[in-house]
Amino acid sequence: MPIDPSVAIGADLGTAEFSWNTSDVLLYQLALGAGADPLSARELRYATEKDTVVLPSFATVAQNFHATEPPKVSFPGIEIDLAKVVHGSQSVTAHRPLPTSGRATARTRIIDVHDKGKAAVIWQETEVVDEAGEPLWTSRSSIFARGEGGFGGDRGPSEKIELPDRAADAIVDVPTIGQQALIYRLCGDRNPLHSDPAFAKAAGFDAPILHGLCTYGIVAKAVTDAVLDGDAAKVGSWSAKFAGIMLPGETLRVRIWRADDRHLVTAESVERGAPVLSDAVFTAR
């Protein structure tokens, strides 16, 4: 059915209670490549139970970590074929350091729908509180639905971030492995776009691609390591737009610029020289 922004915008998608434990956190961070150097004390804090640190990007998987079915794009005023959908952008604001285990309640709503002509962009916001009702994190995300535009909605603003006219303050190369998407899907995203060659080809890709949120987490870790020496508890927020695909086995080149009280970030595939993340902003607490 066509998108009906009068129904979709502001729609309350309800609340969900969920929990997580240290094993979930460790699997998530291993799926991002943590522990590649098993002799590094910093890496072991991501990958073992000793003094475990939690990347705030864990917030993107915590609620649905144990899901085993592919996600559906079925909301009030919106019904879209999953094969037409790619992640557009993601942000997480950590209101305090994320605990290694806990119980929480999430409330999600659709905050906007933009009409890009040949595509639609759907924005969601999720507020998460702990058992005492205290804020844990806020996440915002957009999905890009090809062929679903033209419904007469607002095109939305351009939110491009201008990078400093100088060389990056830090450049970090992060290799991925061929099994990266197959490991990451165990964190709750079973979209066959990342594991089924036939589904990926039908969706217009030559091969299964890496989850956008996996790339998002890998880069979050790279910047946390470069800027905060791996002290994930000091991360305040992390936002990025998905500018292109990443293939498992490629290397990410992450560039970081310091700009006042924040860091501006880009990421690209080294092998293809193609952008993967853009308009990315990292802030410390």
From TrEMBL:
EC number: 4.2.1.107
GO molecular function: (3S)-3-hydroxyacyl-CoA dehydrogenase (NAD+) activity; 17-beta-hydroxysteroid dehydrogenase (NAD+) activity; 3alpha,7alpha,12alpha-trihydroxy-5beta-cholest-24-enoyl-CoA hydratase activity; enoyl-CoA hydratase activity
Entry keywords, A to Z: Lyase
Stretches assigned to the MaoC-like domain: 164-274
CDD domains to which the protein is assigned, alphabetical: HDE_HSD
InterPro entries: HotDog_dom_sf (IPR029069), MaoC-like_dom (IPR002539), MFE-2_N (IPR054357)
Origin superkingdom: Bacteria
EC top class named in words: lyase
One GO term of the biological process aspect: fatty acid beta-oxidation
Alphabetical list of Pfam families matching this protein: MaoC_dehydratas (PF01575), MFE-2_hydrat-2_N (PF22622)
Residue ranges annotated for the Peroxisomal multifunctional enzyme type 2-like N-terminal domain, each copy included: 18-147
Annotated family: Belongs to the enoyl-CoA hydratase/isomerase family.
Protein's UniProt name: 3-alpha,7-alpha,12-alpha-trihydroxy-5-beta-chole st-24-enoyl-CoAhydratase
Native source species: Tsukamurella paurometabola (strain ATCC 8368 / DSM 20162 / CCUG 35730 / CIP 100753 / JCM 10117 / KCTC 9821 / NBRC 16120 / NCIMB 702349 / NCTC 13040)
